[in-house]
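User: I'm putting together a teaching handout on how sequence relates to shape, and I'd like one worked example. Could you take dCTP deaminase, dUMP-forming from Eisenbergiella tayi, show the sequence you're using, and then write out its predicted structure as tokens right after it?

Assistant: Happy to. First the sequence, then the structure tokens directly below it.
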Amino acid sequence: MILSDKTILKMLENKSLTITPVEKEQIQPASVDVRLGNTFSIVEDMSRGILSLDNEIVYKTITADTYVLLPGQFVLASTMEYFELPDNLTAFVEGRSSLGRIGLFIQNAGWVDPGFRGEITLELFNANRCAIELKAGRRVGQLVFAQLDDTALNPYSGKYQGQRGATGSRVYMDIEAK
């Protein structure tokens, strides 16, 4: 079941869902708007030009209120908001249609697990032929919350728990866990 604005407001009030900072205008009929934070990370250039999923990937991270995303460029960014989801709630990250229409693709693998705590890292790609100026604080997407039929047996406690800022891939840790 997708949560309504009424339920989201009730959960924020009774603190069963945490979103900070959040303003009432961000609460939409069936979602919460997310705003762009001020950290951006790009993969460092490598002499081989090949990213291996078996090795740690090195990122250059900057803090800035404005970032110019060049045509064909990919950057990680963070939400301004920090989230704490209860063990019976999941969320989907969706980009804003008005930004998609100018070629800005926004994703975070689309899914936030029950029990997740942290800022959400967004993957941004400029599919346009023009550069796109990104500004911290701008609405870039929305979170749609869905209630689970029961509390998760194994709520999220993974490698991104508690993340702040644009957090790079930790896929290499999957191999170490085996």
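A couple of points you could highlight for students: The domain at 5-45+54-167 is CATH 2.70.40.10 (Deoxyuridine 5'-Triphosphate Nucleotidohydrolase; Chain A). The two ends are 34 Å apart (CA to CA).
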